[in-house]
């Protein structure tokens, strides 16, 4: 995880005073810009640090409710809170693995570590930033996570010094390289997991690696070996992270699992990465239209969607599906009310100067161009899909969301 190397933790003990904590909690509803203009009510303390605690705690309210609702929690920078795992995604990954011992080599603010502690008897949080390590150690004590040990130092040195066998190693490589800036390939991240895999296997046969959602699956598979499963994790239809399960000695094609975590549901879709083409049906729009969630779109399992759900696909490159009978689906479902060719006469009749939600799939014009060209306002109950049919004709589908 990317954490600022210039965070100031020198005031940790002062920030825990009852007076400061009370001030922080009483000002969570006040604008930071408004507070910043006020005179520092604690002249002996760093005012920016106090403001950071307020701003970071505000960011934690929805993302980290356990931390937010606990007393005497100290926060790193607002940006660090934004970049850390959410509790929902941490809970998901913690349910994937279990055992006696796990080491988190890139501990950061400790959200993932905390959730691992619910499934392992012993957990080690390794963090190279000593001040952040102390902060997290304090927070764990406030959260009553007594089975977590915090170690400050470089992860490789920590593994060598401990010289223990772990059921799992967890790594969330930093996507910021001192020389290259923000990077996306695994070998450019810190630590360099592809080069260190054999070293890690000396201490565990099972490794879980978290990467950014922008990492291409094919590129990741070229860099890593022994990948048994890939988990694409989305939160409210936004892909947040990709998890790579690595088992020493594993050979073969990995499973691809997509998960979309919503407020009231989990949308799960799974398939085995296979080089053999799947035979699916293509055809014209029927009564219902299906749009896969973001995790499935990232997985690339477009033919698998048609095969597993027994749906007809509109076009090899549109990734929209249709059926006569409504089914439960991992994504958005619509009832098609009208289908017409993308022509001036039809657009004037159905959409010009009206309000509609617009989605494009395999279509030459962007949503912005379509809105401007036909004076279509955003919003309303009409959902439109601008796409290409099997005969390569540009078509428009008017739908209602189910």
UniProtKB/TrEMBL annotation:
GO biological process, one term: methylation
InterPro entries cross-referenced by the UniProt entry: PG_1098_Fer, SAM-dependent_MTases_sf, Thump-like
Alphabetical keyword list: Methyltransferase, Transferase
Gene3D superfamilies: Methyltransferase PG1098, N-terminal domain, Vaccinia Virus protein VP39
Domain of life: Bacteria
Residue ranges of every copy of the THUMP-like domain listed in the record: 331-401
Pfam family, one: Cons_hypoth95
Record-annotated PG-1098 ferredoxin-like domain positions: 288-329
Protein name: Class I SAM-dependent methyltransferase
Protein species of origin: Flavobacterium piscinae
């Amino acid at each position: 995880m990317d954490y600022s190397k210039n965070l100031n933790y020198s005031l940790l003990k002062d920030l825990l005073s009852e007076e400061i904590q009370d001030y922080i909690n009483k000002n969570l509803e006040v604008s930071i810009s408004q507070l910043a203009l006020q005179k520092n009510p604690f002249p002996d303390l760093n005012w920016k640090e106090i403001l950071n605690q307020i701003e970071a705690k505000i960011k934690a309210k929805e993302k980290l409710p356990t931390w937010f609702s606990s007393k005497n929690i100290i926060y790193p920078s607002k940006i660090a809170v934004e970049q850390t795992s959410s509790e929902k995604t941490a809970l998901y990954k913690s349910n994937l693995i279990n055992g006696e011992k796990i080491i988190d080599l890139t501990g950061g603010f400790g959200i993932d570590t905390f959730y691992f502690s619910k499934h392992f008897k012993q957990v080690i949080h390794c963090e190279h930033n000593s001040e952040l390590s102390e902060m997290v150690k304090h927070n764990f004590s406030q959260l009553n996570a007594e089975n977590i040990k915090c170690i400050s130092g470089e992860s490789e040195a920590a593994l060598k010094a401990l010289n223990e066998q772990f059921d799992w190693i967890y790594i969330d490589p930093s996507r910021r390289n001192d020389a290259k800036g923000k990077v996306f390939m695994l070998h450019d991240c810190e630590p360099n997991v592809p080069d260190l895999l054999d070293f890690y296997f000396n201490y565990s046969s099972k490794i879980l690696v978290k990467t950014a959602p922008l990492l291409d699956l094919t590129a990741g598979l070229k860099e890593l070996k022994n990948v048994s499963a890939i988990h694409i994790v989305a939160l409210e239809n936004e892909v947040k992270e990709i998890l790579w399960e690595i088992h020493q000695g594993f050979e073969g094609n990995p499973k691809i699992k997509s998960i979309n975590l919503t407020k009231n549901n989990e949308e799960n879709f799974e398939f085995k990465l296979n080089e053999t083409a799947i035979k699916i049906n293509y055809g014209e729009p029927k009564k219902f239209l299906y749009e896969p969630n973001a995790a499935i779109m990232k997985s690339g399992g477009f033919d698998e969607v048609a095969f597993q759900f027994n749906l007809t696909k509109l076009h090899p490159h549109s990734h929209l599906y249709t059926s006569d009978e409504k089914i439960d689906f991992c994504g958005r479902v619509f009832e098609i009310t009208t289908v017409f060719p993308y022509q001036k006469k039809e657009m004037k009749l159905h959409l010009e100067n009206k309000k509609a939600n617009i989605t494009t799939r395999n279509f030459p014009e962007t949503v912005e161009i379509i809105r401007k060209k036909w004076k279509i306002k955003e919003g309303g109950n009409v959902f439109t899909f601008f796409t290409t049919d099997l005969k390569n004709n540009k078509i428009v589908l008017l739908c209602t969301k189910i």
